Amino acid sequence: MAAVTSPETNPQPRVYFQTPPGTDESEVPVRKQGRVTVKYDRKELRKRLNLEEWIIDQLTDLYDCEEEAIPELEIDVDELLDMPTDRDRANRVKDLLVDCYKPTDDFVAELLEKVRGMQKLNTPPKKGELTP
């Protein structure tokens, strides 16, 4: 089982492994401290998660249904970020919501506002991989 130290007690994030209860200490190999590494910027991940939760809430309102009953559509934030203009982004989202009977203009405008300034999430290259 792992225990993560808090930032107040240790400025460096570390993971310490503890022996499970009922295990003989002599049977367990000695483990060294391991550093916790983060591949992505946590702030950007949190923003993305919040945006995705907001989108789901808005779609349940627009389609007047539970989350499980939302029509199969995918609003890909990275795809929107790749588009050159807000008009292109708005048209893409409106195309996805073509079967929604409620007005979608407010949703689209607010979505574009939330997407503005976000960064595209790229998988960081692994050691030894060349970046283009």
From TrEMBL:
GO cellular component: cytoplasm
GO molecular function: protein serine/threonine phosphatase inhibitor activity
Composition bias type Polar residues, residue spans: 1-12
Region Disordered, annotated ranges: 1-30
Database matches in SUPFAM superfamilies: Myosin phosphatase inhibitor 17kDa protein, CPI-17
Keywords from the named record: Acetylation, Phosphoprotein, Protein phosphatase inhibitor
Protein name (database record): Protein phosphatase 1 regulatory subunit 14B
Keyword Acetylation: yes
Organism, as annotated: Megalops atlanticus (Tarpon)
Recorded family membership: Belongs to the PP1 inhibitor family.
PANTHER family listed in its UniProt record: PROTEIN PHOSPHATASE 1 INHIBITOR POTENTIATED BY PROTEIN KINASE C (PTHR16188), PROTEIN PHOSPHATASE 1 REGULATORY SUBUNIT 14B (PTHR16188:SF5)
GO biological process terms held by the UniProt record: innate immune response
